[in-house]
Amino acid sequence: IRCWSNIPFLTVPLSRAHGKPFAHRSELRHAKRIVVKLGSAVVTRGDECGLALGRLASIVEQVSMLQNQGREMMIVTSGAVAFGKQRLRHEILLSQSVRQALHSGQSQLKDMAIPVLEARACAAAGQSGLMALYEAMFTQYSICAAQILVTNLDFHDEQKRRNLNGTLHELLRMNIVPIINTNDAVVPPPEPNSDLQGVNVISVKDNDSLAARLAVEMRTDLLIVLSDVEGLFDSPPGSDDAKLIDIFYPGDQQSVTFGTKSRVGMGGMEAKVKAALWALQGGTSVVIANGTHPKISGHVITDIVEGKKVGTFFSEVKPAGPTVEQQAEMARAGGRTLAALQPEQRAEIIYRLADLLTDQREEILLANKKDLEEAENKGRLALPLLKRLSLSTSKLNSLSMGLRQIAASSRDSVGRALRRTRVAKALLLEQVTVPIGVLLVIFESRPDCLPQVSALAIASGNGLLLKGGKEAAHSNQILHHLTQEALSIHGVKDAVQLVNTREEVEDLCRLDKLIDLIIPRGSSQLVRNIQKAAKGIPVMGHSEGICHVYVDTDASVEKVTRIIRDSKCEYPAACNALETLLIHRDLLRTPLFDQIIDMLRVEQVKIHAGPRFASYLTFSPSEVKSLRTEYGDLECCIEVVDSVQEAVEHIHKYGSSHTDVIITENEQTAEFFLQHVDSACVFWNASTRFSDGYRFGLGAEVGISTSRIHARGPVGIEGLLTTKWLLRGDNHVVSDFSEHGSMKYLHESLPLPQRNTS
């Protein structure tokens, strides 16, 4: 641990036996010895004359951070030629201007042509300046750097190879970052046909091959190759069908078409891939990524080491199943086929799934028992989460009933006309419901969520990607198998996919070209993380369920304790459970207030006092740390308000726009509350726990949305649909509707077809 650095550091387990490269990205966080190769396009400015100083400073900061975590960092850098070119141009311009002024005697300078500069001379002029720059930057982080210049001939001489190896090991031992470059001032041209002759030979003809050779010679764990492209594409970047390859396997070269080389530097992508595969064969993991993109260059190296999905990862281990990108494409294709089925066929699939949940009850409960035993043995789940993880016969029966409800209500969901307009004679416009596309649903510790969400996706014709928590792996596996069995009766098995790869949630949230909507189901922290990580994909859900119950002065004594008990104690871990109880000030020290407190104590609910409530008490419960707290357990806050208006203001200030309740017999007060509280669900004399898709008659829900766009409250089938416009004409053109045209707009509303409510 480097305690003298001003960079924050982590303690990470970094020891591993070298020999085989890492099989998965998630293992990269265990890399101890790392080579970072900086391509010419990364180090130099766009005009190829001078260095990209801001980018270089960011790279040095990331390398320093990793060095101070206890890793051994090495840099293979370009940039000497560009730096030298900048210096020599400056010198030539200065020299020419002086000579011109002396010979002409004029202060007016003519246009001066700069001669073509020879690369070796530029390298000689730039090496010292480049190294001085690195030294100055690393000094800011209390790290020393050392320069090593090599040529291909140094690797052919056994003694020189041993010397180089010994020097690098000694530098690493002393916590010094070696900065390595080809000695471009004297480097000879590469020998023909000498590249990649087996594991032990690679011609050092550019910095890609140099980095690969050093990585293998030094038995490094990871080689990061930074260039000016996102990674390896299956066709030249910029072409219409080019797709970034997430993981590249040896033998996949035939499926790739290489483009031209980088704007500067010696090697193109083909050279990088050859060098990467050579290093992989030698036991070093490789990632090729973009080091120039302004949005990611500031953390690209650390992201790679943390195992995030950045660039192209080279691996020798092919996954048993499809990649998540392939699964998303399968879900989209399957979803489109699903949407094209007749409504009765989609309903038939859901009915079949409902039957399977009861017919295969024993197998489901056996798988769930395995999950529960593993969770209890590892002790990683709190009691509320264990309750969510648990399945039972009654839960499966309720699930089956809910699915039948969805099937019955889904018959006219897709393709339903919402508006019909006669725009002009023989020109008919129709707005109809259509699926959103591909949904990504991420859920924790709730295997019952899988068939619910699957049924809603099937009913609405959406493709579905499911990412469940590892704690429910066995339950999710069998429930997904049953879902696909039901889908198979109409040949749409691929429409619902379960992500089983080691995909991080943050990586899934970046698939903006494959996923249309993300729906998180889990803790408020999970929802916040997903909302933060989602890149260009809308997120439907709520980050918190801070639900209030306001007890008015006109509240019924019989109703108060029943509603509060049900709201808080029936299922305290639910997002629609009571978290803050608001009491009208006039009810303090009344028999009703005493009944409320006694009931909460009997139910073993821990009470936290709000600031105003605490001020009324001589000996108060622990004062609440925040009025904006979701406890998710047998705990709640009690606060005092002076009126219904103040209750509304409190809810708007501290609530999460989820579910809020008033208990009163005064209809005027109740209507004021219902109309003024700006939440997804607002109830009068009813438990907060009614905020649920099944209880609303939606069959089930994919979640409860507190957003104000598209869907709000419990989201069932309707919330998973969008619309498209269908225009049916007969040789209509806009010019016919101009001032002197032959046609006129009618914009006549037409009746909608009768809905099937059977």
From TrEMBL:
Q: In which pathway does it act?
A: Amino-acid biosynthesis; L-proline biosynthesis; L-glutamate 5-semialdehyde from L-glutamate: step 2/2; Amino-acid biosynthesis; L-proline biosynthesis; L-glutamate 5-semialdehyde from L-glutamate: step 1/2
Q: Please give the Pfam families that the UniProt record associates with this protein.
A: AA_kinase, Aldedh
Q: Which InterPro entries match?
A: AceGlu_kinase-like_sf, Ald_DH/histidinol_DH, Ald_DH_C, Ald_DH_N, Aldehyde_DH_dom, Asp/Glu/Uridylate_kinase, G-glutamylP_reductase_CS, G5K_ProBA
One GO process term, biological-process aspect: L-proline biosynthetic process
What residue stretches are annotated with the Aldehyde dehydrogenase domain?
323-588
Give its E.C. classification number: 1.2.1.41, 2.7.2.11
Domain (Aspartate/glutamate/uridylate kinase) ranges: 32-290
Reactions catalysed according to its record: L-glutamate 5-semialdehyde + phosphate + NADP(+) = L-glutamyl 5-phosphate + NADPH + H(+); L-glutamate + ATP = L-glutamyl 5-phosphate + ADP
* GO terms of molecular function: ATP binding; glutamate 5-kinase activity; glutamate-5-semialdehyde dehydrogenase activity
Its localization reads: Mitochondrion matrix
Keyword entries, A-Z: Amino-acid biosynthesis, ATP-binding, Kinase, Mitochondrion, Multifunctional enzyme, NADP, Nucleotide-binding, Oxidoreductase, Proline biosynthesis, Transferase
**What is a single cellular component term in the Gene Ontology annotation?**
mitochondrial matrix
How this chain assembles, per its entry, is:
Can form homodimers/multimers.
Q: What does this protein do?
A: Bifunctional enzyme that converts glutamate to glutamate 5-semialdehyde, an intermediate in the biosynthesis of proline, ornithine and arginine.
For this chain, the family text in UniProt reads: In the C-terminal section; belongs to the gamma-glutamyl phosphate reductase family. In the N-terminal section; belongs to the glutamate 5-kinase family.
Question: Which protein is depicted?
Answer: Delta-1-pyrroline-5-carboxylate synthase
In which organism is this protein found? Serilophus lunatus
